[in-house]
Amino acid sequence: MCLQPLLRAQNRTMTKQEKESYVWFRVYHVINPCLPSIGGTMRLLRKRKTLCIVLVVLAVFLSLMLSHTIVLDLSGAIRIQDLSPRNVMGHIGYIGVGLTQPKECKPARNVAFVKTHKAGSTTIANILMRYGMANDLNFALPNTKLHSYGYNYISRAGEVLTRDFIIPLPAGQEYNILFNHAIYNRTAFRLIMPKNTTYITILREPFQQFVSTFEYYRVEKYFAKRGYQIPESENPLSTFLKNPYLYDRSTALFSYIRNKQSEDLGLNRQHYKNPNKLKEYIEAMDKDFTLVMILEYFDESLLLLKHALCWSIKDILYITHNVNHKKPKRNFTDSDLANHRKMSHLDYELYSHFFRKFWDKLQSQGDDFFKELAHFKSLLHRVNQSCYARRSFHVKKTKWHSSFTINKTDCRILMMPELVSLDLLYNRTSQKFNLAPNLNYVVRYGRKNQAAQTERLTVNATGT
């Protein structure tokens, strides 16, 4: 068969010389078996030049298509097996066809990020904070007492979000960035943010989000205070899931351990009870949100975000925040998973829909995207090594970005805890618009808890 040589293409590292002749080697083996002889080939070239050219072009196209599905980078830098998903919803492998072509675009200035609990949102918020500070943008900050309980929340479940919930700006000014906790409400958000705002959010696999929340907030201690003690010798999460209503007598359909991501995104009782209402709401979200990121594919999500917002690769560098490194390893049964799905079915519906949409978007990316992804991951490794060692480092120009430097100030802001960041933004806003007396306090950050004045960090936020 004419295409048999193509199917025998080997997935291996090639030398430079082999690469240069690889395509022509395949063209010859595609065409030659289809022709009677070399002499016949030459006669065909003389008499039917057009047909021959078409065959050659077709052979090159087919061979390149096949090589893209087998090997993303012939040099061995990126291979499909290195990028295969971690058994999420049964999908396998990336398939990228073609190259990601550079497009003329204008960086987005107006971004609303709807935070979801225990789903990587704090890390995303740090990225948005850095971008906003570097570009002198205005932040929608909670209009609440500084350092009071939950002062990083703009609105909570059951509250009707209005502009009164946000620190007002002078006439003629508009909000550019919103990333603090606020229950999503389409009408309310659009009364606060400009018309051309890009809406984004992030979701996490529901069971893992439940486990993270349970461990992070030590929910079993909350139950114990109410007289419902979970034996310490057992897996408290598994014990809870066997009979959740024994420990949590509340009839609420939403809580920190029930459908919390759905609640953050504005779903309510009517969506829980009515499948048609749920479907309509998810379809509306499809139209509202430019990108719904997936925590299990965090780096891929950020690279898609970079492209969607027309930002630079430096803008999306990060150091992970709010990770519970002391979380014990737990074993769960199929029954545990089934019981959780029953009590949080909205989160599963939401995640299933947007995971599929995310996956389709990821599969549509070209080879260049995954090469950039590998480069991005290598930069993240350097960021973590250098920032924790308190060293600056320079990044050379590549096809994806200009040269840039990550200095010590960049590292401080990358590593800055969430509430310290919020204090910094409050102080910056008050100084910028003279809205309130200057907040003369010292913020603390870094591994050794070194102190630095907020004003100094504000001045140096751009890394200059």
From TrEMBL:
Keywords: Glycoprotein, Golgi apparatus, Membrane, Signal-anchor, Transferase, Transmembrane, Transmembrane helix
Coiled-coil ranges from the UniProt annotation: none
SUPFAM superfamilies: P-loop containing nucleoside triphosphate hydrolases (SSF52540)
A GO cellular component annotation in the UniProt record: Golgi membrane
Intracellular or extracellular location(s): Golgi apparatus membrane
Pfam family, one: Gal-3-0_sulfotr
Alphabetical GO biological process terms: glycolipid biosynthetic process
Membrane topology term: Single-pass type II membrane protein
Keyword Membrane: yes
Residue intervals passing through the bilayer: 51-71
Primary localization: Golgi
Single GO MF descriptor: galactosylceramide sulfotransferase activity
Recorded family membership: Belongs to the galactose-3-O-sulfotransferase family.
Protein name per Swiss-Prot or TrEMBL: Galactose-3-O-sulfotransferase 4
Protein's organism: Biomphalaria pfeifferi
